[in-house]
Amino acid sequence: NAEYMGKTDILIRDFHSSCKRFFGSLIYLCPMEFDFDCIKTVGADVEGYAVITNNHFAHSAARISDPYVQSRTAEAHKKQAQLSEIIERMGTASAKAQGLKAVITTPSRIIATDHRVYLKVTRNKVIGLLKVGKKKLFIRNEQGNMREIEPLCVLDFYVHESLQRSGQGKILFEFMMDREGLPAAKFAYDRPSPKLLGFLSKHYGLRHFVPQSNNFVVYSQYFQPAASRRRDPAVTMEPLSSPKMSMPPTSPAPTSPRKHESTPPFGVDPHFS
Known about the structure:
The chain is α+β, with helices and mostly antiparallel strands. The protein has helices at 2-25, 38-42, 67-98, 107-111, 168-180, 194-204, and strands at 32-33, 49-52, 116-122, 125-134, 137-140, 146-149, 152-159, 187-190, 216-218. It contains six helices and nine strands. Strands 1, 2, 3, 4, 7, 8 and 9 form a seven-stranded mixed β-sheet that branches. The protein has a two-stranded antiparallel ribbon with strand order 5-6. The longest helix has 32 residues, at 67-98. The chain is globular, with a radius of gyration of 30 Å.
């Protein structure tokens, strides 16, 4: 009987492990789901984008001491709790996907900094997260000299596994660049994963950088003169042609002879007339 019970325990334990692996893998089959309207919670625009800052967590007891204000803040506190859940779960998933020992995107870190978190949501699902913020960095150049800079940094970037390689990451990244007004080369990247390095190389031609002891990546193009925002340097703009003037029909020429004009008519180069 003891031997039989032992084998039964082993079978049950193996069954539980198999179930855990199976149901755990289901997490990656669809975007992260929530039991509330994510669009409403994060205040997303019509395309599902939202920018989260510490202002989204600004409600305090001092601000709700007035009874009228208290009556209007229940929904705000509910949204804050839901937003905290989104940030915590997405931040945890991002850290796990990147193999980080600690979660780097949490509600408390957003509250304590001026970092901005870009979200892409749809109904009750969250597709991706991208966090940016300024950092003071000491960067060593190719000659070995140290230089202090304060770039805007990409601190966290995660798209749910079910939607990777579908263009969602590039869409979110492009939205962030539009809002920040910077091209990809003018950011610093905190501990970028191999996937992010490949992403930047493929879409923005960023490849060359000097490895740093602080694990930030600053591409060589960062130190080059700024070009027009996000324009491909291989693309040239056609010069604008001079506007054409529509002239009204002229009246019949007068009978008296007309003197030669010293100034050439519009659009005529006197050297080639």
